[in-house]
Amino acid sequence: MDILIDIILKAGRSAVELSLFVLLPVMVVMLSLMRLLEARGALDCLVARISPLLRPFGLTGLGVFAALQINFVSFAAPMATLTMMEQRGTSDRHLAATLAMVFAMAQANAAFPMLTMGLQFGPLLAFSLLGGLAAAAATYYLFGRHLSALEATLDETLHHPVADNAKGVLDVINRAGAEAFKIAIGAIPMLVLSLVAVTALKKFGAIDALTVLIAPLLQVVGIDPVLILPTLTKYLAGGTAMMGVMDDMRRAGQVSGELLNASAGFLISPFDLPGVAVLISAGRRVAAVWKPAAVGACVGIALRTLGHAAFA
Hints:
The chain is mainly alpha-helical.
């Protein structure tokens, strides 16, 4: 029992430190910037210019908003846009392409805090965009081609607060700060549970046994066995939990900046059990197209993985 209590206390301390002293300040700044650009109409202008270029990939104007949200806000932010797309009559085919793109892109709530660990933002964003577009196109033209293309006349504007004066700017910043605080506090339970589970598995030798078992196979394909632990954590507990594990491993000297960047393609995305569960809850039709979207996302994540491995 003493061992378990010690594991819980250490995991709790690590989770709180990561959430409040790394995740929270980064998300406050990024969310405030995004919400201010949104309130001043800059994002509307950007989407209007970019959306015609992305239509050949199976994306609509609202799909562009979803891409900005996943890359610059958090993995859950596109859920509101997906719900809006469903309610406004977007076709199942476009919904699937947008969902695949979101699955395959880098999630801001893990990516931005990991910049403090040595993650390179430029390559991450570039490969995130390439992977997301590849996932959307593969889903729209291949894996989701059987889905309905019937579409209503779409209103592709987002209704959001405006910031025409000082009070409006302060209101936007306050709302962004509250949103960031909610994200940071909401991450603590999953971080604590995942760190407790991971620490217990390490303490009782399960991770070492698994590493010994599959290390020869990993070495054949050129994958460092040290990535077993963060990979298991990511796909079972989500990107924020993976970030906590990577932070502990970095502090212990087990993970270098080079390895972190090389593995970012398959470690930083919302395509995991918690991420999929949250995003498909956006609506009935969104949930109905998750299978072709998931297959398309695998194409995008594979492209990102190869890109990061080659660049690193």
